[in-house]
């Protein structure tokens, strides 16, 4: 833009020539390459300047070129030459035009001083004094830049310090104080390089003899800029700047007379507090002086009076401001962590710097302790926000971080937090939280709005429990945590109707955590306890909370918490679940056994025509069971679950008692009416809760009650075996007793068991749930509770409820019960696979009698004896019950659950009373069936239990054995009615069959077996086999061995050593045979591929079976059955067990008439038939293995597990060789041949009367006849089955040889 004056000069030819000269001189700058060229160019420019014209043409370009020559990298000569040009220009344009063009030339002059050389600086200052000061008020337009240019000259110790200071004073006089200091504050705000000089200038200009009000100009024209500038200077990197800034605060802004607003003062205070992070004592001292209103560097003549003055000053002026500033600072950090995008990488621990500020403030006794309580809540909120930030960051899908990194971040937060928490006394924080809970309780009682929401308080407690080291201080765990827990439970109990569901849930979760971390009070070392070795620690036992001694001065706070919690439990059920006292009492009366039977089967007829269960087992159900509840119901269920869990945790809480121990003395017999109210309420929740989610409430209640009952039973069993237990009222000086805070005593459990129908009703309800197809989501829970209930129940009443329906006379009831039991069985397998325990160390106790009922459904011969209306036939001709049982068995076999099905049957077949020994054994004639209990079956069971005595209450397998062998009265008749059938054929048919076999097979086979070498040929047109070197090598070798060695029956025949229930053994063998006949291929394959050790890890019964097997093998080796087992069989397959059992019963006989010989013969028949079926189907497997190997297909298409021919053949051969199957069968067959030969004489046609005492007097011929059956018909029948076994062994050996040929030849 050209002024009118310049426009007039354009008409002057000399001015135009002047412009051309200027432009020519400026072009010389473009060709400059060195600083010398710049000096020459500047000289040319200076020469062409014409003082005749008061206007400088091309001034913008000239200003730029001169500013370029002021570059700090150029030498001082260039700067001086440029200053000469500036001076020439200023002389030409004079002051008036300089005011207009100041912006053109100042951009080169102002930045020069800070980088100018010593020879340049005086020249520059002369220029300021000569040409700039005369500008007067016009300097206000460039005052900011001029101050930034001159302030570096205030560096102390330099030659120009005083000259610059005087220059600035004159500038202040020219521009005015208000404008000058306003510009000075702007310089402080914008430039960190001149900040220290500006702050020091303000300090020097401040008159300490006057107040700030008398010299308000020093604040400047804009208070906001002044506050911002001071905040920036307080956060400057230079400690000197921070010190000077704090001095300004102390002088200009005393807290007793603040010249600025409260908000601005809080902002300044926040910036000043950040100086504490530098841990610099000079800075801390200045901050404390500002807050306390007293110079901390002065000597204290009267310490007490000075401290009092400081406290008064701080409380009056500084405390509120400091609290507000800290709260704002903490709140700002909370908002930052809450709203900060987790995609940005910030450290949550770095954002916790306010905690380090508090640590520094707490070091100052006059400040920190006075304000910490007012900001402690914000501290908790900041820690909570930091933890949530880390959780959110690592849960964000944009971040793929591992849990280790997250744990590291949380650990950093904990370390930062513990810097502050470690300053406090161990119990201070917990006392503070207890006070806050107490205040919330008062506000809730008065329906007032609480300052801190209850849920937030719970979050603080949970956070503090996580990040603080609670375990480091015993006092916290034994005193402060129980006190806090007590306050919270009191609040729950008093405001159960006012607290929301979310508040109750979070509060109970917090209480549960507090209870987990709380510890009992340790008893003091009194004079009666001389040293630690004199302590006698008693086993845990349930003690009523009212009898725990409290006279030791320690106060068992947990017991008080438990009392209040029981009250809360009753109030919660009353107000939230509708359990009034009248309803609870009515439920208890219905539950009492008024006319109820302890044993249902004693008074109920299984053959009754009623289609409904008896009234004593009908469960009162009000409301829908298992219906899908609303959100409110779901919340109530969660709260109730937490409540019951806490009840159980309280019951398990240990207490230490010292001195006289007053045990809770109770009546010998109590009634259900005398139950405490909490127990009645819990029983009401089990029985009569009528909300939509009643099943969930019921299951939670059942689980809690069973936990407490198991705890009581466990402690009672422990006390019964403890010889050092202390009697009631005994003086326990020098003894420490560990007791459990269980509110449920053994008398309560006894009354609930003997005087109520508790077990029956609960079993009936859970059993009913299993029958509901619309309640499938509850089936697993119902099964789990049924197993737990059955394990806790002292007798079989739970199983009797199930058995009532399974053997009911009504067809629909019975079939429905079969379906429910199949579900129960399969879900039990699911629980075992998941290794779900039954709590308190209780193992699974299976429903074996119900298992017998479903196994009986597989046998059509048993079903044919029933009334035809009871079993409806399906389209395949099978009964529906048989089809259901068959489908159940198929699924068990496919899921490889065969061992669990066989467990009760194998337990019977391997029972200690069934063990036997060889006839030639030296102690075979001892009367062992009268062995005392100490060396009988109970000893075996006790040895098994002894290994698990420290693992809590286990299922006693002796009960299983005794129930099966001896039987209950009501079930004995049932088993006899189901199993008292003989498979012995008519004697005429049996004799004809035996004679035919003897003529056709025995003469042609046995005679050949005695020859040394026999030709072996197979007729391709027939299915008969002849023994030869190919097919009968192994069998011939066995026959050669026994023909040379078996000169007497004593070498292979076995003798039962005790009396046993043969009908049960026969029933077990027939049941296994029925399962094999139902699914022959799948059963055989599963038996071959299933290992006993896989089931041993899940059940005590599996361990017992393995132990019994080892003992039976030990008895055959000549050692005592009841002696300690020296070696155990490992990697035992199911087929091994079946082979051992069959061979054991085939060659064993009983000498006395106590056991019916026909029953023993039926056992032999069933064993032969089972072994025969196994061999036939294993033959099929061997044949299919050959075909599968050639076709590269699986031998069993339906099975998920296949065994190749290379694996199958060696495995089967190992079984046959390990148990000498061929040898045993041939020896037995040889004995029958000898027996038939003996019976051909006229003098031994009648049975031989033998007892154990007269057995040794018999000769070999009589022993052969007696051992083979002691009856002609039985001997011939036995021989016929043995011949069938021989044929099966030959066939099986042939197919094994085929497999070997294929493997060796690769065909």
UniProtKB/TrEMBL annotation:
Ranges in coiled-coil conformation: 980-1012
Region (Disordered): 929-956
Domain named DOP1-like TPR: residues: 1050-1303
Primary location: Golgi
Keyword Membrane carried by entry: yes
InterPro entries named in the record: DOP1, DOP1_N, TPR_DOP1, TPR_DOP1_M
Domain of life (superkingdom): Eukaryota
Ranges of residues in domain DOP1-like middle TPR: 313-518
Protein name per the record: Dopey N-terminal domain-containing protein
Source taxonomy: Eukaryota, Metazoa, Chordata, Tunicata, Ascidiacea
């Amino acid at each position: 833009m050209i002024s009118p004056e310049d426009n007039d000069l354009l008409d002057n030819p000399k001015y135009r020539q002047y412009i051309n000269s200027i432009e020519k001189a400026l072009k010389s700058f473009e060709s400059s390459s060195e600083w010398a060229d710049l000096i020459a160019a500047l000289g040319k420019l200076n020469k062409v300047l014409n003082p005749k014209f008061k206007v400088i043409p091309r001034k913008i370009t000239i200003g730029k070129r001169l500013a370029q020559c002021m570059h700090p990298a150029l030498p001082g000569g260039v700067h001086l030459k440029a200053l000469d040009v500036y001076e020439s220009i200023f002389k030409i344009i004079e002051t008036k035009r300089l005011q207009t063009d100041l912006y053109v030339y100042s951009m080169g002059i102002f930045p020069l001083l800070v980088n100018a050389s010593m020879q340049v600086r005086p020249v520059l200052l002369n220029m300021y004094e000569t040409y700039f000061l005369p500008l007067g008020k016009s300097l206000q337009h460039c005052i900011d830049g001029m101050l930034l240019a001159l302030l570096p000259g205030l560096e102390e110790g330099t030659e120009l310090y005083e000259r610059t200071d005087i220059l600035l004073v004159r500038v202040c006089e020219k521009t005015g104080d208000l404008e000058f200091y306003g510009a000075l504050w702007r310089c402080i705000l914008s430039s960190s390089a001149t900040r220290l000089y500006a702050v020091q200038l303000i300090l020097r200009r401040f008159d300490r003899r006057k107040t700030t009000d008398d010299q308000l100009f020093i604040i400047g024209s804009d208070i906001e800029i002044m506050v911002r500038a001071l905040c920036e200077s307080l956060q400057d990197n230079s400690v000197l700047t921070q010190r000077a800034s704090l001095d300004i605060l102390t002088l200009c802004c005393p807290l007793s007379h603040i010249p600025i607003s409260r908000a601005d003062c809080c902002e300044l205070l926040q910036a000043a507090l950040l100086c504490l992070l530098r841990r610099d004592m000079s800075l801390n001292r200045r901050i404390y002086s500002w807050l306390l209103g007293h110079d901390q560097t002065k000597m204290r003549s009267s310490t007490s009076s000075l401290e009092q003055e400081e406290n008064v000053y701080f409380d009056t002026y500084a405390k509120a401001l400091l609290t507000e500033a800290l709260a704002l600072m903490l709140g700002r950090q909370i908002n930052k962590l809450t709203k900060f995008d987790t995609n940005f990488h910030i450290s949550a621990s770095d954002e916790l710097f306010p905690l380090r500020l508090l640590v520094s403030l707490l070091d100052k006794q006059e400040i920190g302790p006075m304000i910490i309580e007012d900001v402690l809540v914000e501290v908790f909120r900041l820690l909570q926000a930091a933890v949530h930030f880390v959780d959110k960051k690592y849960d964000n899908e944009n971040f793929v971080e591992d849990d280790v990194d997250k744990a590291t971040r949380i650990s950093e937060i904990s370390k930062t937090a513990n810097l502050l928490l470690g300053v406090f006394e161990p119990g201070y924080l917990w006392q503070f939280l207890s006070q806050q809970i107490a205040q919330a309780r008062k506000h809730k009682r008065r329906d007032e709005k609480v300052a801190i929401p209850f849920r937030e308080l719970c979050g603080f407690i949970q956070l503090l429990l996580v990040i603080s080291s609670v375990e480091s201080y015993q006092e916290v765990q034994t005193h402060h945590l129980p006190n806090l827990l007590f306050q919270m439970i009191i609040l729950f109990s008093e405001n159960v109707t006012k607290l929301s569901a979310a508040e109750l849930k979070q509060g109970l979760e917090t209480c549960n955590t507090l209870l987990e971390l709380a510890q009992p009070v340790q008893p003091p070392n009194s004079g009666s306890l001389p040293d630690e070795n004199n302590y006698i620690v008693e086993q845990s036992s349930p003690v009523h909370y009212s009898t725990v001694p409290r006279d030791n001065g320690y106060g068992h706070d947990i017991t008080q918490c438990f009392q209040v919690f029981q009250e809360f439990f009753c109030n919660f059920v009353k107000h939230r679940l509708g359990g009034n006292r009248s309803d609870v009492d009515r439920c208890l009366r219905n539950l009492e056994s008024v006319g109820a039977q302890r044993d249902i089967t004693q008074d109920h007829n299984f053959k009754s025509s009623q289609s409904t269960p008896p009234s004593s087992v009908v469960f009162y159900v009000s409301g829908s069971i298992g219906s899908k509840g609303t959100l409110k119901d779901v919340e109530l269920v969660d709260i109730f679950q937490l409540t019951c869990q806490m009840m159980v945790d309280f019951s398990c809480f240990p207490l230490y008692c010292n001195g006289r121990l007053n045990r809770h003395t109770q009546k010998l017999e109590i009634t259900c009416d005398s139950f405490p109210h909490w127990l009645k309420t819990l029983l009401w929740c089990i029985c009569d809760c009528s909300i939509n989610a009643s099943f969930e409430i019921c299951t939670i209640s059942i689980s809690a009650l069973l936990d407490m009952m198991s705890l009581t039973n466990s402690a009672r069993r422990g006390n019964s075996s403890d010889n050092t237990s202390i009697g009631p009222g005994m003086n326990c000086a020098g003894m420490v007793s560990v007791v459990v805070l269980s509110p449920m005593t053994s008398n309560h459990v006894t009354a609930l068991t003997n005087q109520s129908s508790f077990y029956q009703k609960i079993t009936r309800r859970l059993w009913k749930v299993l029958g509901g197809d619309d309640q499938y989501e509850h089936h697993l829970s119902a099964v789990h509770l049924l197993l737990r209930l059955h394990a806790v129940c002292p007798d079989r009443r739970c199983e009797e409820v199930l058995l009532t329906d399974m053997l009911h006379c009504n067809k629909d009831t019975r079939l429905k019960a079969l379906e429910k039991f199949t579900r129960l069985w399969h879900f039990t397998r699911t629980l075992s696979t998941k290794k779900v325990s039954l709590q308190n160390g209780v193992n699974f106790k299976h429903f074996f009698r119900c298992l017998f009922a479903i196994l009986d459904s597989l046998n059509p011969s048993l079903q044919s004896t029933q009334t035809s209306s009871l079993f409806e036939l399906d389209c395949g001709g099978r009964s529906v019950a048989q089809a259901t049982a068959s489908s159940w068995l198929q699924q068990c076999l496919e899921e490889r659950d065969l061992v669990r099905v066989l467990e009760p049957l194998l337990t019977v077949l391997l029972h200690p009373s069934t063990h036997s020994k060889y006839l030639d054994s030296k102690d075979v004639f001892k009367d062992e069936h009268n062995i005392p209990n100490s060396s009988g079956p109970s000893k075996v069971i006790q040895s098994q239990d002894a290994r698990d005595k420290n693992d809590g209450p286990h299922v006693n397998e002796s009960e299983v054995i005794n129930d099966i062998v001896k039987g209950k009265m009501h079930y004995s008749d049932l088993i006899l009615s189901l199993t008292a059938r003989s498979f012995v054929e008519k004697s005429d048919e049996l004799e004809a069959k035996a004679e035919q076999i003897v003529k056709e097979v025995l003469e042609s086979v046995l005679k050949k077996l005695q020859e040394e070498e026999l030709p072996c040929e197979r007729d391709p047109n027939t299915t008969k086999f002849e023994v030869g070197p190919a097919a009968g090598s192994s069998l011939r070798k066995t026959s050669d061995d026994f023909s040379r060695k078996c000169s007497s029956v004593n070498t292979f025949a076995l003798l039962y050593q005790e009396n046993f229930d043969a009908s049960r053994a026969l029933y077990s063998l027939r049941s296994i045979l029925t399962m094999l006949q139902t699914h022959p291929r799948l059963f055989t394959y599963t038996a071959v591929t299933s290992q006993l050790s896989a089931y041993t890890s899940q059940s005590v019964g599996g361990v017992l079976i393995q132990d019994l097997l080892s003992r039976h093998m030990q008895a055959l080796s000549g050692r005592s059955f009841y002696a300690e087992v020296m070696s155990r069989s490992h990697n035992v397959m199911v087929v091994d067990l079946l082979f051992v059992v069959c061979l054991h019963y085939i060659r064993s006989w009983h000498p006395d008439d106590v056991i019916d010989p026909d029953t023993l013969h039926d056992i032999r028949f069933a064993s032969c038939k089972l072994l025969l079926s196994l061999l036939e189907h294993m033959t099929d497997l061997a044949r299919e293995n050959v075909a599968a190997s050639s076709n590269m297909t699986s031998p069993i298409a339906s099975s998920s597990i296949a065994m190749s021919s290379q694996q199958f053949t060696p495995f089967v051969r190992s079984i046959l060789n390990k148990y000498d199957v061929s040898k045993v069968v041939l020896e037995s067959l040889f004995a029958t041949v000898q027996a038939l030969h003996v019976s051909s004489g006229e003098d031994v046609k009648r049975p031989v009367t033998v007892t154990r005492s007269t057995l040794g007097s018999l000769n070999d011929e009589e022993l052969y006849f007696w051992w083979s059956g002691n009856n002609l018909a039985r001997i011939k029948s036995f021989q016929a089955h043995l011949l069938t076994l021989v044929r099966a062994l030959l066939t099986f050996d042939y197919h094994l040889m085929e497999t070997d040929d294929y493997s060796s030849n690769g065909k």
